[in-house]
Amino acid sequence: MKYQSQAVALPYFVAAIGLFVGQIIFGLILGLQYVVGDFLFPEIPFNVARMVHTNLLIVWLLFGFMGAAYYLVPEESETELFSPKLALVLFWVFLVAGALTIVGYLTVDYATLAQYTGNDILATMGREFLEQPLITKVGIVVVALAFLFNISMTVLKGRKTAINVVLLLGLWGLAIFFLFSFYNPTNLVLDKFYWWWVVHLWVEGVWELIMAALLAFVLIKVTGVDREVIEKWLYVIIALALVTGIIGTGHHYYWIGTPEYWQWWGSIFSALEPIPFFAMTVFAFNMVNRRRREHPNQAAVLWALGTGVMAFLGAGVWGFLHTLAPVNYFTHGSQITAAHGHMAFYGAYVMVVITIISYAMPILRGRACNSRKSQVLEMWSFWLMTIAMVFITLFLTAAGILQVWLQRVSDTPMSFMAVQDQVSLFYWMREWSGVVFFIGLLCYLASFFIKGEEAPAKA
């Protein structure tokens, strides 16, 4: 660890992993509720379990991004963090606010929660992924602004590199686009139009900048390839991501009442969206093949390579499968969408956060890498989680294809619930794949506690 203030990243990483475990537990509950409808009802209704599952996903990834920034920025800027104390205060504020919100979801019915938390003052609740109460949203904005102030001041007083500037741009974009969660027009078309400015422009816009910056940082550290080479790749990737991702928002506008030209714009630019993810895959493998040293943390190298491949498959290939307007007409909102969402989130963002944690956590604990035994178990966790996610995606894709055929294409279309009965086998297979994923996650957790011969951390 080069700078003492990098240590503030540790609690963020620990919280991220803990919340990740919670997200997967609720994912397993949801998967079982698909086939056993009254499982844990009325204690945890389906809509509440889904809300907790998706909100935990967002919160733990934000913890991961913040921890990554606190670790990366001082090293890239070659200066101590502007205010480590502020970073620790924000950690506890964010963690407590997030925990109270989840407790509120689980213990109070949603309408009552809205009444208690000021939704009558400014109605922002009830929107998918943005279900957080008004006071939680305000808290997120306050934490984000203080976090960005801390990071921005660190960058301003230190060295400016392509990596920390791109990361800063992505983090500022994340905060700015979240402000649209406060705009909730009564017109449903406008509501959906601007809702995607948060959801899409996060995951297919500014989050891609964060992902690229984190991946570039780790690859510089583990390969020893010249910074100039990696930064040139970084510029190309983020340019492609922004051009295709911003205009590609149009693939959400096909059937919500917007002008017809969005079917052309959305289809064309969405078809180009796999390109930056493919470039990221080539980038990762190219840098590892050109490496000038064999880094002892081979687990981090594996996660870095896996990020590129799985992001391309999930966000690129599975996104392209149903992004063209004539295809989306039939597949919109089907289980094919769920298949794309699961693999895309895992490949693009879950894996990149694990990559930076895998690289940085041993250093934060005083060594260059974990022991060989620990890394072997971590690599097992990589393969268990990744293969399980591939099967989850395949089973949901099969369910989606059958759903589209029986419910939307057939000359004698079946009702929604009748179709759900027909695809229940795939839901069971998805659930068992989720169990394997959870076992892989437990292996990942266990790898942090395995001792062995350790290498001292390099300065």
TrEMBL record:
Compartments in which it is found: Membrane
Keyword Acetylation: no
Transmembrane segments: 12-36, 56-74, 86-108, 134-156, 163-183, 195-220, 232-256, 262-288, 300-321, 341-361, 382-406, 432-450
Pfam families reported in the protein's UniProt record: COX1
Stretches assigned to the Cytochrome oxidase subunit I profile domain: 1-459
Topology with respect to the bilayer: Multi-pass membrane protein
Record keywords, A-Z: Electron transport, Heme, Iron, Membrane, Metal-binding, Respiratory chain, Transmembrane, Transmembrane helix, Transport
InterPro entries listed in its UniProt record: Cyt_c_oxase-like_su1_dom, Cyt_c_oxase-like_su1_sf, Cyt_C_Oxase_1, Cyt_c_Oxase_su1_BS
Principal location class: membrane
Top-level division of the source organism's lineage: Bacteria
Family: Belongs to the heme-copper respiratory oxidase family.
UniProt protein name: Cbb3-type cytochrome c oxidase subunit I
Species of origin: Thauera sedimentorum
